[in-house]
Amino acid sequence: MKYAIISDIHGNLEALEAVLNKCNEEGVERYICLGDIVGYNTNPSECLEIIRSLELVGCVKGNHDEYASNNDEEMIGFNPHAKKAVLWTVEQLTEEQRYWLASRPMRQNIKGLNITIVHATLDSPDAWGYIFDNHHAADNFSYQFTQLCFCGHSHVPLAFCKLPVTARSDNPIMELPEWVAAPGDLIDFEVPTTYRLALKPGLKYLVNVGSIGQPRNKDPRASFAIYDDVEKVLYRHCLPYDIETTRTKILAAGLPERLAKRLLLGS
Ligand code: ZN
Question: 154 alpha carbon to ligand 1 midpoint, in Å?
Answer without folding.
Answer: 7
